[in-house]
Task: inverse folding
């Protein structure tokens, strides 16, 4: 079911462009008029069969490439188009672009790997789902025509193996940071941010010709993800978007950035603190203390009797009050937090799967697998196979 409005979609597309300088268009089915593209081009794109989440398309006799992605909004359905070389074909350059399209382009029109990175980022921003780059390439091999080029396949395979080792570790390390923004836990967010920054190769260069521009792009990308996490955490969208715009405008005025870490420390810390304030405004002191105790004792006994004794209130009162204030049963909340921690252990630790359920106080492995699948859609083994890339 679609959960995004066209207004939010347009904001995502503009932010995506601000971050990557890849022109992004939304074409709504049933409407052949577009402020930037010609009616003929709009009709041509909308009539193109799109069967993949990310579909590569050659344009102008394979001189350049674009990405087509189906989009479903609350107002209807349409097509998202990512087109690095759009400025060569547009009839009217949007005001938001006119100062930028003639400047240094962040990716070359035919840089397939960077274009796919932007598409995977766009899909994640729209659907909060990670796509496997190798699978996207495999799905589009009829366009790439790589089967007839054995040497190209080998080079592509080696490149993808190198990228995947960093991509999955980086993605899940980054996810830990923004999960804590969503939860309003500044202490853990800053801890995970430090770990994330220390990962080798985490931050790719979005602008090869301009170090300052690259740093700005990375900060803006983090602001975008922080904004979404804060909104998911309960911060009013208007407040989050205004804060996002303010920070992005400030970043664009900087003439020098020595290190992005203190900037991200301040910005993401601000988002996290605001989410925490919203939580404090909606939850009583007892429930906030209960949640904090759970976050800090995931490896310990978190039975209702232990929690109520810590808070010095009766077990029935705690159970009822937690459900009333959060809308979620205390037992389910604890399960969710432990499964999130299990995901981190699966990816970032050397613990065997058989050890993790014991560490997190699940009474047996079969129950752990059942709960893990309920919350993630995967068994622990499937999750490890999907997200942990072993060195070849």
Result:
């Amino acid at each position: 079911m679609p959960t995004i409005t066209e207004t939010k979609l347009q904001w995502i597309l503009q932010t995506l462009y601000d971050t990557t300088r890849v022109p992004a268009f939304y074409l709504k089915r049933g409407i052949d008029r577009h402020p930037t593209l010609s009616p003929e081009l709009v009709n041509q794109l909308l009539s193109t069969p799109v069967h993949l989440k990310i579909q590569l398309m050659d344009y102008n006799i394979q001189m350049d490439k674009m990405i087509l992605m189906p989009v479903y909004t609350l107002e209807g359905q349409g097509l998202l188009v990512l087109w690095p070389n759009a400025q060569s074909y547009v009839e009217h350059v949007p005001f938001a672009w006119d100062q930028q399209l003639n400047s240094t382009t962040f990716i070359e029109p035919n840089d397939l790997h960077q274009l796919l990175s932007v598409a995977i980022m766009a899909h994640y921003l729209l659907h909060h789902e990670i796509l496997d780059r190798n699978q996207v390439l495999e799905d589009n091999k009829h366009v790439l025509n790589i089967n007839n080029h054995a040497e190209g396949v080998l080079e592509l395979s080696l490149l993808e193996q190198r990228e995947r080792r960093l991509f999955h570790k980086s993605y899940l390390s980054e996810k830990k940071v923004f999960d804590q923004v969503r939860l309003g836990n500044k202490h853990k967010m800053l801890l995970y941010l430090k770990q994330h920054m220390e990962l080798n190769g985490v931050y790719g260069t979005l602008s090869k010709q301009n170090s300052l521009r690259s740093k700005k792009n990375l900060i803006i990308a983090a602001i975008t993800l922080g904004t979404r996490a804060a909104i998911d955490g309960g911060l009013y969208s208007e407040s989050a978007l205004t804060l996002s715009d303010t920070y992005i405008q400030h970043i664009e005025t900087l003439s020098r950035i020595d290190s992005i870490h203190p900037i991200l420390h301040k910005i993401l810390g601000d988002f996290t603190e605001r989410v925490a304030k919203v939580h404090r405004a909606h939850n009583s002191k007892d429930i906030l203390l209960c949640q904090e105790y759970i976050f800090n004792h995931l490896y310990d006994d978190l039975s209702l009797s232990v929690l109520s004794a810590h808070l010095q209130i009766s077990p029935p009162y705690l159970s009822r009050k937690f459900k009333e204030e959060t809308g979620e049963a205390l037992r389910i909340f604890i399960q969710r937090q432990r499964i999130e921690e299990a995901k981190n252990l699966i990816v970032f630790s050397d613990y065997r799967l058989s050890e993790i359920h014991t560490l997190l106080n699940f009474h047996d492995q079969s129950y752990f697998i059942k709960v893990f699948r309920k919350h993630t859609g995967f068994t622990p083994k499937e999750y490890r196979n999907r997200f942990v890339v072993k060195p070849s």
User: Anything to note?
Assistant: Residues 91-106, 146-168, 200-208 have pLDDT under 50 and may be disordered. The first strand starts at residue 24 and ends at 28. The two ends are 39 Å apart (CA to CA). The chain has 17 helices and four strands.
